[in-house]
Amino acid sequence: MGRYLVRRVLVALPTLVGITGVTFLVSHLLPSDLVLTSLGDRATQSPALVAAFRHRWGLDQPMMIQYLIYFGNLLHGDLGTSIATNRPVLTELALSLPATVELATVSLLAALGAGIALGVLAAGTRNAAVDAVARGLSAIGVAIPTFWFGILLVSTVYFRLGWAPPPGRLTVGLTAPEPVTGMFLVDALLRGRPDLFADALRHMVLPAIVLATVGVGFVTRITRASMLEVIAQDYVRTARAKGLARWSVVSRHALRNALIPVITIGGTLYAQLMSGTVLTETIFSWPGMGRYAFSSAASLDFPAVMGVALVVGVIYVIVNLWVDMLYVLVNPRVRYQ
Amino acid sequence: MIPMARVSPVVVAVALGVSLTGLPGPSTSAAGRTDVVVIAKDISDIRTPDPSKSYDVGGVFLQFPIYSRLVKQRAPDFWKIQGDLAESWSVSADATTYTFKLRRDAVFPSGNPLTSEDVRFSLLRAKNIKGYGSFLADPLKTVEIVDPQTVRVILNGPDATFLAALAAGVFSIVDSKTVRAQGGVETVGAESLDKAEQWFYSHSAGAGPYVLQRYTRETEIVLERNEKYYGPKPFFREVIVKHIKEPGTQSLILQRADVDMALDLSVDQAENLKGKAGVTLFEDPSAYTVYMGLNTSAAPWDNVKVREAVKYAIDYDAIVTGIMRGHGRRIGSIMMPGMLGFPESLNMQLLYKHDPAKAAALMKEAGVSRASVPLTWAAGTNYGALPLDRLAQKLRGDLAKVGIDLKLQPVQQSIFLTFYRQGKPQTAIGFWFPDYMDPDNWSYFVTGFINKRLHWQNPEAAKIVSQAQKTADAPSREKMYEQYNRMLAAPDSPYVSLAQPTNLVGARADITGFKFHPLYFLEMDSLRRK
Question: pTM for the whole thing?
Fold first, then answer.
């Protein structure tokens, strides 16, 4: 198992190096000029300022050298400095990543909870109506445009009904808990501030619903299909024949095996949610990775864009590893050599 | 790990649902925040909270209430320069030496009184730190301390505009002792020696009406009243600027009184807010002026008659009433009306009449019956209250009537900036937004800077503005800029002046004392609650 993990990590390294290479190439092939865009209209008229800017950001070096310098710094754990803000990219990611991780985790739990419940219900009841409702919901969940749904929730649940707080991570005027992880829910608990925990959670409801809705559709479909397959197997019939109640059979025997494909889809979902969701973050004023990636790209902040790409790559690698580990927990017959 | 099979997913789902919706509801009224004002604004463009480095629109908005400068300009007479930290000043006849007498009652929040050294340190730091706004300090040669209350600013050459430039954000005066203690450096080489920038994220060192509590990227700006401020005591103890990107959301949270003001409303939202209970609108002329630029190196714009025809072919009033829904006005030149040398009367005089018949006749005279040319602009953006996508459609419609087919080529903003600054587009929607409020800041349309992009020269106009920049005598300057504006509006010029949009601010009805500033948005210290 240990050796397997080491091997997986080693295999991931070339992928990550590839990501930096491709991102670097793509961002430097854009038909926009960093100097002309970053400096003000009049500053571009001053050769001294333009030269200082180019030198400061290494733009006076050939592209290959620029990449090698970047890569060398990366080996020392230095993701470079953001051109837009002059702060280390790592510092900025440390601000936006926790906001995204927190929202992604809550959304994933909601999607899994609701999706598995609906899927089991649809497969388990022979009631065609329940099945149809579950399938309908999952179809809507997959098809609904996130942007439209987000705006709809804000304008109804927040604006008309007043059941949810306005966009943002905390109520205006509240100070975020002293950062430990940067995730408000976790930090609020660590700092013994249940009031902040509740406030942060309330602010998460609407964006989490938007993000979870897409996932619910997938999870329901997969759970339902997988459950139907498992229920049809001999050992389930045996369990039923022993006289166990139907729900007991479903929850104790069938569900565990049926969950394997759900874990796979859950992993993909989690990685997607973690890599940031620009539209949802924009609507809900959520200062996460998606927003950071978007504004960095718009202002041609190459070090920041590369930082985001790299972090997203690492997230995919880690999540995939977790998924593989979860297989072992759910199904002890799975072994990695 | 809890074995999955033991926990019914239904129970999990129900528990999750209950815990999410069953929490206490939000408080959604302005009640209880009498001396706190909450403002919704898109602050995603702020690059740094360091006043000497900052140059972007959001950045100067952040620093305006925190820092004072030597001089200031206030609505409505922006051509008039008033003292702020400077009590009085004198300008040498050749406009190269400016001597300022500082006020004695200005004290920084640290308790340090304002001295000449603070002025020297701040101005030189702005120059040597080589930040985004440092080009404004290019004319600066040196700053001399005459005595603790008197400071002399010496320029490289004559520059009559420098007094107005000193009202720009980059020339904010900082507490030199405090900033130096945080690693601030003002000498040559400051761009690599200065280590103070990070400190400005959670502190400030200005003598203005407010003190920075904290600034968090794409989240909020929190300001506290500076109890040591030398001016009238601001009404609000605390100012919270909440980052809301979407103008639509800004409008919603304003209506629900979760914020007191919304600063980025579009024309449509402003129209929808009209007549809504509890909400009021403030509308002021913005510093944006919008034009269509014609690249004279390419057909058909190389033909003077065609350029003139275009100026008669556009239905300007429909742009103002239709696309801007009345939130703006026409302009006859590119300068912001009301500046020295461009009074409203001259603006009216220079407007082109919408006259399709005359436009058609001019096209005939030019010998051009059909032409096809691309129009490039920054897709999806607004210049003030003017949405460019709709403007482009309108221009296309109007020009089609005289036989010119504008091929619409919207591009992403950074690509547009690159293209336009390289002089590539054949037709472009451009705008100007001043760095500071002096007519000279609108002179670049002939100095070889903007006009180069359109491959057009007017040596006579270039001579006039260069002369005006060195002329300290206001009446003489006024005449020169008048002449300059007439030249920009002449039939042969490549600029089709379109509109000056207004700035729209939505506020709760109990907010009064709103004073707009075209560069900094608003004067926080004059805001009050009824």
Answer: 0.89
